[in-house]
Specification:
This is AbiJ-NTD3 domain-containing protein. The chain is α+β, with helices and mostly antiparallel strands. The protein contains 17 helices and 12 strands. Helix 1 packs antiparallel against helix 6 and helix 15 crosses helix 17.
């Protein structure tokens, strides 16, 4: 197929822009054979083409989309080619949705809000580094000022569709454009709300919407996020990593659901910072920990201290193996994007012990082995099943198993995702590393968690 050969050519052109010594690593990241470094030094284009040879259409289309996302402006020609080959599969926000949005924007008289057109687009791209289309000027900033402010012989349609090519920009750049349209630095609250309602009406058809994720001086900052079936409501009380005696918790204010730990508070950790819809990352947890431990100086010292404290809350060898492997395998790869793997999290709380209830258990699962708080309000529970999950005093217990699966159902109905590992799978540290690696590679792809260099 001629178009597929063109795609191979375009991908080769883009990737050959990498340093020869780095090319095997880049190819490996995209699922291509990394080969020998010396081969890359011989001819970078041929090196890439050789690894693309024989790849089927689905692989090339998927690879193209990833490269468009990663390389942005450098992949413009591949983006155009991909649209001619597979118009429905190039962008998550489709061209028809983009066109509908842009057509609506043409009807507005306050498109740039408080800013002028040059200042507005400088919030998205470095116009002073972009070349001009007009030979009389050096930069895009000068070009746009001349033709949109001084003479006004470009119109909005030419600017958005031809000059900035918003219909074929990668999704991240198009989303950034929309986010700047509704930024509080650009427009006041009433205008912001009107634009958000307008944009969300169109974004919804592709499974996205603008949602407030943070604040600037009390004004909401909106980001384009995917509509998910995540857990409704905010994370208010994150109590985790308990060691020793169980903390005793009371409800301080039942109207606001405020709690207080009145006994054994030092045995657990309580994260009270606001958690945005972007989730909770390891780097944020380290920053929080450093605020509680001001004597720690270097970032590495803070990180190691928190890691050891969390590790100390784990009892079973399989849980320890799982926790260690997560950081050993992915800490260096994901850095700031690594979701926090939070151990021993209290989900429910029963103030009474089993003995105080005369042997009855009202809440069979009070703690989760691990919790991850991901973007778009996704909450993921990971359980490492030991024999206590399905037996009583080493005798198989259908009742214990039924309680476990009932608790799982309740979590899933409330929007949590639950993944279980058998403790037996994690008994051998070396063998389990491959299992954990494969699981999280698929996990990060499913939840769209990207490496810092992706």
């Amino acid at each position: 197929m001629a178009k597929l050969n063109q795609i191979v050519e375009e991908i080769s052109n883009i990737l050959s822009g990498e340093k020869a010594y780095n090319l095997p690593i880049v190819c490996g990241r995209y699922g291509l054979d990394d080969g020998e470094e010396s081969e890359a030094f011989s001819s970078k284009r041929l090196y890439v083409q050789k690894r693309l040879k024989g790849k089927n259409q689905l692989f090339l289309l998927d690879l193209s989309k990833r490269i468009i996302d990663d390389y942005g402006e450098s992949a413009k020609s591949l983006s155009k080619l991909m649209y001619s080959v597979n118009p429905k599969g190039v962008f998550e926000i489709s061209e028809i949705t983009r066109k509908n949005i842009i057509d609506e924007l043409y009807k507005r008289t306050d498109l740039w809000g408080r800013a002028d057109v040059v200042s507005f687009f400088k919030r998205i791209w470095d116009l002073d580094a972009m070349p001009s289309r007009d030979g009389r000027f050096d930069t895009a900033a000068q070009d746009i000022w001349q033709h949109m402010i001084n003479n006004y012989d470009y119109d909005e349609q030419f600017l958005l569709e031809e000059y900035f090519e918003l219909l074929i920009k990668n999704d991240q750049e198009f989303m950034n454009f929309l986010e700047q349209l509704v930024h509080p630095m650009i427009r006041d609250q009433s205008s912001q709300e009107a634009y958000i309602n307008l944009l969300n009406e169109h974004l919804h058809s592709d499974g996205f919407y603008l949602y407030p994720t943070s604040q600037l001086s009390g004004y909401p900052i909106y980001k384009v996020i995917r509509i998910q079936n995540g857990v409704r409501g905010e994370v208010k009380n994150l109590i985790f990593a308990a060691v020793g005696a169980k903390p005793e918790i009371i409800i301080n204010d039942s109207l606001n659901n405020d709690i207080a730990i009145v006994k054994h508070k030092d045995n657990c950790l309580v994260y009270e910072n606001p958690i945005s819809s972007d989730g909770l990352y390891w780097a944020e947890l380290v920053d929080w920990w450093s605020g509680m431990n001001p004597t720690l100086t270097s970032y590495k010292e803070k990180e190691v201290s928190l890691y050891k404290r969390l590790l100390s809350s784990l009892d079973s060898p399989p849980e320890i193996t799982f926790f260690k492997a997560y950081f050993q395998l992915f800490r260096g790869q994901y850095h700031q994007n690594l979701p926090a793997l939070i151990p021993q999290v209290y989900l429910h709380y029963d103030p009474y012990t089993k003995r105080q209830r005369n042997g009855e258990i009202y809440l069979p699962r009070q703690r989760m082995d691990f919790l991850l708080l991901l973007p778009n309000r996704e909450r993921v529970v990971i359980e490492i099943d030991g024999k206590q999950h399905y037996s009583e005093e080493n005798v198989a217990s259908p009742q214990r198993y039924a309680e476990m699966v009932s608790a799982d159902r309740d979590l899933k109905l409330h929007g949590y995702d639950v993944y279980r590992f058998g403790g037996y799978e994690l008994m051998n540290e070396d063998k389990s590393a491959e299992l954990i690696k494969n699981f999280f590679n698929s996990f990060f792809k499913k939840y769209d968690i990207k490496t810092t260099n992706a």
